[in-house]
């Protein structure tokens, strides 16, 4: 089943292979021809309609007549080798709307639809999982998580500003991972600040050692003390009085970012 043919029943004549054929070639069942429908709502950003069959053509010309649609969340779909194109650049199309008819324009070995999905960087991804499903959503939600030194594992991610915190009261944390943020922690056992880390490339902390200070740039955050309570919210990350969350010598067992 596919969303991109008018008659949803289809067969794949050429699958996705990275760096070889980063698309799906699709025909209606029994190799029949069919109208092409928009996979999802979006805006037509390219519509080429004056191309002929051109075996051996390369680059954009190899697509023949094609339509490219930009969807919410930044994904693109592209429909190539069309015999006819029913839309023009700038049109807003709805899911299931006919945008053209299957053909063999451009570098096509026969009548079929060449269907691509591209991510928000315009990089082709495997369309197979999404042929009859919504496009992947670009998850822009920032998350963070902490390592529980007692349970000895990373606790589940917590969404920034969700009103939830990361940690188990009573169990000191030994590390913090956070999306986007640049951060560092003060190692209670070693008694000094560990190097800055950022963008989830690394975690802040020495797993197993306790943390007694946290700095997170560009965030408002607070720390919870083991056998204590929540400290004040901090919205700086510098060496001034309120430029970090924590009290030296007191283990932190939870943090919250808002
Ligand atoms: Zn193809």
Explain what this protein looks like in three dimensions.
The chain is mostly beta strands. It folds into 2 domains: 10-130, Glucose Permease (Domain IIA); 143-257, no CATH class. Helices cover 0% and strands 36% of the residues. The chain contains no helices and 22 strands. The protein has strands spanning 10-14, 24-28, 35-37, 42-48, 65-70, 76-82, 84-85, 92-93, 98-101, 113-118, 124-125, 143-148, 153-154, 158-159, 166-167, 173-178, 182-187, 192-193, 197-198, 211-216, 221-225, 252-257. The strands form 5 sheets. Strands 1, 2, 4, 5, 6, 8, 10 and 11 form an 8-stranded antiparallel β-sheet that branches. Strands 12, 13, 14 and 16 form a 4-stranded antiparallel β-sheet that branches. Strands 17, 18, 19 and 20 form a 4-stranded antiparallel β-sheet that branches. Strand 12 (143-148) and strand 13 form a beta hairpin. It is elongated. It starts with 9 loop residues before the first strand and ends with a strand. Zinc ion binds next to loops. Residues 14, 21, 23, 25, 114 line the site of zinc ion.
What's this model, at a glance?
The chain has 258 residues and is mainly β. It has 2 domains: 10-130, Glucose Permease (Domain IIA); 143-257, no CATH class. The protein has strands at 10-14, 24-28, 35-37, 42-48, 65-70, 76-82, 84-85, 92-93, 98-101, 113-118, 124-125, 143-148, 153-154, 158-159, 166-167, 173-178, 182-187, 192-193, 197-198, 211-216, 221-225, 252-257.
